[in-house]
Write the structure tokens for this entry.
Amino acid sequence: MDSWFSCHWKTCGCQSVSKLPSGLLVASLENYSPVSKIGVFVKAGSRYETAENLGVTHILRLASNLTTKGASAFRICRGLEAVGASLSVTSSREHMVYSLDCLRDDFEGAMEYLINVTTAPDFRPWELSDLLPRVKIDKAVADQSPQIGVLEKLHEAAYKNALSNSLYCPDHMVGKISVDHLQQFFANNYTSARMALVGLGVSHAAVMKVGEQFFSTHTGFGAPGAVYRGGELRVQSGGGLVHALLACEGAVAGSAEANAFSVLQRLLGVGPHVKRGSNITSKLSQCIAKATTQPFDVSATAFSATYSDSGLFGVYVISQADSAREVINAAMAQVTAVAEGSLTADDLTRAKTQLMADYLMSLESSEGLLEELGVQVLSSGAYSSPQTVTQSIDAVTSSDVVKAAKKFDESKKTMSCYGHLANTPFVDEL
């Protein structure tokens, strides 16, 4: 215990959060589960890429099970199999997340491989070359998906830097990411001050011991803040459908304004709440149904994304090409109606209830709980309990929601669209 005297402790119910002298954040939730889930969260998402190494996080995501300085790719695979554990890696524009699932009794043995992957990779040129087909497949799947395409193009158009970087390796960089790129990115970003070590179903002392022993590296470099600019990107393709995303700059993650935008999102509609349902009860669905003669061939949902220094909020529309203009205008008019005060007490209560239910249900899975705990701790150094979060949602007022709608109505817009765009308006026509 003497070695922990300089740590800063914060305990939230069963959750414990500590900060080691190295800058590493350590969090745990002891739920006495027979299965432990350990996550390493790193501020190393695609926003930290530069023009010289665009796509490096895509390669790192795929290279997570390759040879390290302490274990070969074969040993990692067989070692995890021997103890019935699994290791997965996901990434976002903000974070890289390494997640290990193992039996509680095998915690120490399984952690060896997670530690190797996150602290001591040893990139080999021939292994990197073998990843090229997987990179191309990922990129091809993303390019053929309108849903992924409009989201990637929206970020590219919305920001001048950082958040404009794609989650996928751009075409001109496929095959050009070298071992030097990977090593330099790893050295700059995979440092203790930019990491959080999070454990579920394991004692805080055990996680702290691992953090003190293996995650004590120098401080890395930061990154410039994202600069919102607004704009438009259009991808013309065949087919009879149009996918369009229209957004403004939203709110920073964890802020009161972000709660207001989330409530507004539920108010407008975020998709069916009944499996294979029509979503006809949402305000957006109701308004676009009146704007077209083919109401069952269109859909509209509210869109929201929050980041550490910015965010996006808007509407996502899918419609027949011939009715795209009418549907997009109708969706915008619905947000304008809210901005003008078309909001009842029942509407507000329903939206807040849906948001609280969505949030609480996301914590029912170990994956959702680990992500919530890790992202909160890494961004703020503390963890807000579910009770605190739901109280902050319940505190959102009708004026907060109206203000959020007005921001969308009056702010500079960003638009991305994909499909047969002959009848799709440009952003400056809306």
Q: What stands out?
A: The chain has two domains: 2-214, 231-429.
